[in-house]
Every structure is written in C-alpha cells, then in structure tokens.
Design brief:
By secondary structure, the chain is of the alpha+beta class. The chain has helices spanning 3-18, 112-132; strands at 22-27, 37-42, 58-68, 72-82, 85-98, 102-110. The protein has two domains: 1-21 and 111-130; 22-109. Strand 3 (58-68) and strand 4 (72-82) form a beta hairpin.
Length: 151
C-alpha cells in the first residue's frame, strides 16, 4: 500500500474514533454502567444548589459513574450543561450528586454501523477528490519543471 494511501486510511480511522456517531438511551440509576459514559439530567431544584467545583445553575452532568448509593452518585465529570449557557468541559473532576436532584439517566451508546458508514463516505470522498486533479496522481511534491504545453 503506497504511503499516501496509508495516511488517508489513518485519518479516516481516526475520524471514526474522534467523531463516532452516538446516541443517548434512557437507563436507570441502578443499571448505570461504571465503565461507560452517562448523562444525568438534573431537576429544577438542582439549579439553585452549588455542586462544588461545578457551581450552580447546572442542568446536566456527563461523565463516568464511579459509585452509587441510595442517596448519592459519584461521577467523574467530563461535561456540564448550564442554564442559558454553552456546555462546559471538565477533566474527570469527582463530584457527588444527591439522587434527589437527578431527574433522569441516559447512557451514551456508539452506533458502530453509522460510524463506519460515515468513515467510508469520508474515505470515498478523499479518494475521489484525489483522483480528480492530476489524473489520479496525488502528491505533495512541487513539479520539477514547467507545466506541459496546453495546460
């Protein structure tokens, strides 16, 4: 496989990992996975409460569940939704959220077939674009001489 095609294949593969198609499916707090990403939608009452480093006005929390009990959930936070503001990224800060403030729980699921279809479309588009200019020659090198007559 020529080097250029390997680079295109690597970028296409990376695009699947970075921008995989995913959805959120409702689940219960009792069955929330410890290894997957979940989103906790908080109740209206939670907006007035300060959740440590997160502060207040929080509408949703996304991250990895670390532990659960009847009264609270400990989560390593990756993203927070706020009232009238953009989502804010976090780096796994551990936050305890009382279960009385959790309105619903959703689990993030990657849609493998859709992700592969998108990656295939990206690879196909890159190959098609590469074959359109220069009659199939894809090169980063500068031409060694003047252009051929008639171009």
């Amino acid at each position: 496989m020529p080097g250029r095609i390997k680079v295109v294949a690597a970028f296409a593969g990376a695009s699947v990992l970075v921008a995989a198609c995913s959805t959120y499916a409702p689940t219960s707090l009792a069955s929330a996975p410890a290894s997957g990403t979940v989103r906790l939608a908080l109740t209206d009452a939670a907006r007035a409460v300060s959740f440590g480093l997160l502060g207040s006005q929080v509408t949703s929390v996304e991250g990895q569940v670390r532990s659960t009990s009847d009264s609270a959930v400990t989560i390593a936070v990756s993203e927070v939704g706020r009232v009238a503001a953009d989502n804010q990224a976090y780096n796994g800060e551990m936050i305890v959220i009382p279960t009385r403030f959790i309105g619903s729980v959703e689990q993030k699921r990657t849609q493998v077939a859709r992700s592969l279809a998108v990656a295939g479309a990206v690879v196909g588009a890159v190959v098609w674009i590469g074959t359109q200019g220069g009659h199939g020659a894809v090169s980063a090198k500068k031409p060694s001489g003047p252009p051929p007559p008639g171009t």
